[in-house]
UniProtKB/TrEMBL annotation:
SUPFAM superfamilies: Metallo-dependent phosphatases, Purple acid phosphatase, N-terminal domain. Residues 2-68 form the Purple acid phosphatase Fn3-like domain. Keywords: Glycoprotein, Hydrolase, Iron, Secreted, Signal, Zinc. It is found in: Secreted. The keyword Acetylation does not apply. Residues 75-179 form the Purple acid phosphatase N-terminal domain. It catalyses: a phosphate monoester + H2O = an alcohol + phosphate. This is Purple acid phosphatase. GO terms for molecular function: acid phosphatase activity; metal ion binding. Its main location: secreted. The keyword Isomerase does not apply. It is an enzyme of class 3 (hydrolase). Its cofactor is Zn(2+); Fe cation.
Length: 513
């Protein structure tokens, strides 16, 4: 009972009886519509009087049942640990003692093979604090992950989820398809979408716990509308805002199913996934509602060495991504700092010229931090900007602040390139982008006018990167309301420009010849 409205896992969501008929209190008659998704249990509707402040149960409806409440649902794709591996994760009600999970898959139009899946779940005592381990607890079912390996580059595959029951019969999902990743360095059209802080919302207009992500459905719908022109998605923290009410993870995976079942849906850890008191998170609040990272790392696969430490690298064609975990220590000397430097240093810039850094909290620059004059998380830039400059990171993306902002290529608070719409030549300074307007309530900008900020927008939106080849990149900021472009720039350069010496970004030399 940490946050208004004070409801438990049941009811999962609610409406007011007089929403559809203002005369309800006089006539006692009203009609409401709810959208139900399969959550492995039967449903009932309950009527309460007294509102949220003094609820009294008046009546309970008959039971509503799904044909198969245990059915495999909500597949979400992710890059594996190698470029030619795709992982498929899904939710079902089947434990391994009841049914063996697998994926049937193959190239479109060709013979199909089967790959086994591992099965995980979590329990109430795995949660770190209320409400996740008290009133917010709900059984999550079982989470299955299968690894589809040795994929041919840029090829279309079909797949479906399966469970073989102990009696020899099968339960199947519907069929899905995806396009495999290009070979690292492959010269082809490659399109990446990045945003943070989206959350979920109810399409039926009902209310729920943590109901403050009004832009969520618009962002989801714009991505679905443009899905044929998207190759991979990065949702960089604050995934569901379930905040310890576990039923909402089903709701979120249902909401993004059309996206996550078609292209890799890569996530980063945010404060609303990880932070819980006395749980080892760098920040000691309870923004996760007691989830302490357990649910996010189980519901979504990421190619991390240790999924409890949510940092990892992944390649997509001409892109190399280094995803940090801002909820664990990133300062110099820490385990994560060593990972970040290793990840940045490992980029082969001839093959993968576009080097991207990602974290949830703003470890770089944001005008919305004006009150403490840090313009970013304290200790963020002082620990990391030397690495960004040394390894010539093109763009650093952040969420957490619920708006959009883009900087010039900046280093130590100074713009290193002039211009707003096109950059060419040497890589000097990193462009910092806050893209936390995925759906949650919007953040304001401060009154301070900073020299490094080029574009601000307190609205819902997302970024799309389009790599045309090794020398040309297009950046676009699109609003979720209409999908139109409101900010953009291009980068054009050659490999020698990446190699060129810049301030604090020079390779050692010798006078020997």
């Amino acid at each position: 009972m940490e946050q208004f409205p004070h409801i438990c896992s049941a009811p999962i969501k609610y409406k007011y009886a007089n929403d559809s008929d203002a005369d309800y209190k006089k006539t006692g008659k009203s009609s409401l519509k709810f959208q139900l998704i399969n959550q492995r249990e039967d449903f009932s509707f309950a009527l309460f009087s007294g509102g949220l402040s003094d609820p009294k149960l008046v009546a309970v409806s008959n039971v509503i049942s799904f044909a198969n409440p245990k059915a495999p649902l909500y597949p979400r794709l992710s890059q594996g640990k190698s470029w030619n591996e795709m992982t498929v994760t899904w939710t079902s009600g089947y434990n391994v003692i009841e049914a063996v999970p697998f994926v049937e898959w193959g190239m479109k139009g060709e013979s199909q093979s089967r790959s086994p899946a591992g099965t995980l779940t979590f329990h109430e005592n795995d949660m770190c604090a209320p409400p996740a381990r008290t009133v917010g607890w709900r059984d999550p079912g079982f989470i299955h992950t299968s690894f589809l390996k040795d994929l041919w580059p840029s090829s279309v595959y079909t797949y479906k989820l399966g469970h073989k029951l102990v009696d020899g019969s099968y339960v199947w999902s519907k069929s899905y398809s995806f396009k495999s990743s290009p070979y690292p360095g492959q010269d082809s059209l490659q399109r990446v979408v990045i945003f943070g802080d989206m959350g979920k919302a109810e399409r039926d207009g009902s209310n729920e716990y943590s109901n403050y992500q009004p832009g969520s459905l618009n962002t989801t719908d714009q991505l679905i509308k443009d899905l044929k022109n998207i190759d991979i998605v990065f949702h960089i923290g604050d995934i569901t805002y379930a905040n310890g009410y576990i039923s909402q993870w089903d709701q979120f995976t249902s909401q993004v199913e059309r996206i996550a079942s078609t292209v890799p849906y890569m996530i980063a850890s945010g404060n609303h996934e990880r932070d819980a008191p006395n749980s080892g998170s760098f920040y000691d609040g309870n923004d996760s509602g007691g989830e302490c990272g357990v649910i996010a790392e189980t519901m979504f696969y990421v190619p991390a060495e240790n999924r409890a430490k949510f940092w990892y690298s992944t390649d997509y064609g001409m892109f190399h991504f280094c995803i940090a975990d801002s909820e664990h220590d990133w300062r110099e000397g820490s385990e994560q700092y060593k990972f970040i430097e290793k990840c940045l240093a490992s980029a082969d810039r001839r093959k993968q010229p576009w080097l991207i850094f990602v974290a949830h909290r703003v470890l770089g620059y944001s005008s919305s931090y004006w009150k403490d004059a840090s313009f970013g998380e304290p200790m963020g830039r002082e620990s990391l900007q030397g690495l960004w400059q040394k390894y010539k990171v093109d763009i650093a993306f952040f969420g957490h602040i619920h708006n959009y902002e883009r900087t010039c290529p900046v280093y130590q608070g100074q713009c290193m390139h002039v211009g707003k719409s096109h950059y060419s030549g040497t890589v000097n300074g990193t462009i910092h982008v806050v893209v936390g307007g995925g759906g949650s309530h919007l953040s304001a900008f401060g009154p301070t006018q900073t020299s490094w900020s080029l574009y601000k927008d307190s609205d819902f939106g997302f970024v799309k990167l389009t790599a045309y080849n090794h020398s040309s990149l297009l950046f676009e900021y699109k609003k979720s309301s209409d999908g139109n472009v409101y900010d953009s720039f291009t980068i054009s350069r050659d490999y020698r420009d990446v190699l060129a010496c810049v301030h604090d970004g020079c390779e050692p030399t010798t006078l020997g010849s």
